[in-house]
């Protein structure tokens, strides 16, 4: 018959089992807390979207290949991996002009907080660069990239993709959010005061993902 292990070894074994149980409990608690935080964050983001009247959607973001105000070619494909804010506007649109200062400030702030991770595009449907240059005093402010879509093909593509159907008419301004993977995930109809905290909560959720 085998001899019983010494009491010291039994005590050490029980202590080891207890430590393993404690470690498992700690890991389980940490996982539960992380899941709770994720649910709370998701609820916060949904509430922010509802408060700011952000319409959620899910579709491949239509391509953008346009001339920018600085003379370069703007390509959405080259921005993959970044969160891209796309605003369609015109200088002849009073609500567009009214929201532009707070939108530019938002773009500048997020660009500084998340270097290389956030891009704000202001795509004009004006007839040419003359009107746009006059509006901006010759060059766009820091925080946005300005492009021109005179034939409104890109504009139409976004209006249709977000709704999964084409609207009867196009009103300005409208803004669209493209996530890091190139998915069109949200859009905002009409002008907004972009300094409201709720829109930052929504955009920061994408920037943090």
Secondary-structure element order, as H and E? HEEEEHEHEHEEH
Within the CATH hierarchy, at the fold level, what is the topology of the largest domain?
Glutaredoxin
**DSSP strand content:** 15-25%
| Count of discrete structural domains | 2
Which CATH architecture of the largest domain would you pick? 3-Layer(aba) Sandwich
Please report the first level of CATH classification, the CATH class of the largest domain.
Alpha Beta
Write down the Rg: 25 Å
Terminal CA distance reads 61 Å
How many runs of DSSP E, i.e. beta strands? Answer: 8
User: What ranges have pLDDT less than 50 throughout 5 or more consecutive residues?
Assistant: 30-42
Widest sheet: strand ordering: 1-8-7-4-5-6
Main pleated-sheet profile: 6 strands, mixed
Structural class: alpha/beta
- What is the helix tally? 5
Structure description:
The protein is of the alpha/beta class and 209 residues long. It folds into two domains: 7-51; 54-207, Glutaredoxin. It contains five helices and eight strands, in the order αββββαβαβαββα. It has helices spanning 7-51, 94-113, 129-136, 153-163, 197-207, and strands at 55-60, 65-67, 73-75, 83-89, 118-124, 145-148, 174-178, 183-189. It has a six-stranded mixed β-sheet with strand order 1-8-7-4-5-6, with helices on both faces. A hairpin with a 5-residue loop joins strand 2 and strand 3 (73-75). Helix 1 (7-51) crosses helix 5. The longest helix has 45 residues, at 7-51. The radius of gyration is 25 Å and the shape is elongated. The model is unreliable at 30-42 (pLDDT under 50).
């Amino acid at each position: 018959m085998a001899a019983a292990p010494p009491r010291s070894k039994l005590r050490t074994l029980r202590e080891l089992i207890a430590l393993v149980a404690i470690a498992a409990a700690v890991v389980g608690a940490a996982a539960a807390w992380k899941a709770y935080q994720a649910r709370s964050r998701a609820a916060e983001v949904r509430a922010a979207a509802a408060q700011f009247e952000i319409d959620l959607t899910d579709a491949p973001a239509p391509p953008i290949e346009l001339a920018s105000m600085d003379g370069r070619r703007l390509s959405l494909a080259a921005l993959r991996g970044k969160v891209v804010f796309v605003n369609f506007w015109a200088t002849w649109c009073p609500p567009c002009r009214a929201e532009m200062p707070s939108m530019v400030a938002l773009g500048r702030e997020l660009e500084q907080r998340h270097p290389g991770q956030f891009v704000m595009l202001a795509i004009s449907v004006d007839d040419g660069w003359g009107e746009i240059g006059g509006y901006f005093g010759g060059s766009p402010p820091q925080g946005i990239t300005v492009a021109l879509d005179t034939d409104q093909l890109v504009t139409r593509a976004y209006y249709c993709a977000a709704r999964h159907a084409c609207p009867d008419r196009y009103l300005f301004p409208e803004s669209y959010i493209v996530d890091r993977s190139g998915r069109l995930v949200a859009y905002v109809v009409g002008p907004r005061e972009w300094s409201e905290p709720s829109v930052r909560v929504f955009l920061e959720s994408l920037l943090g993902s």
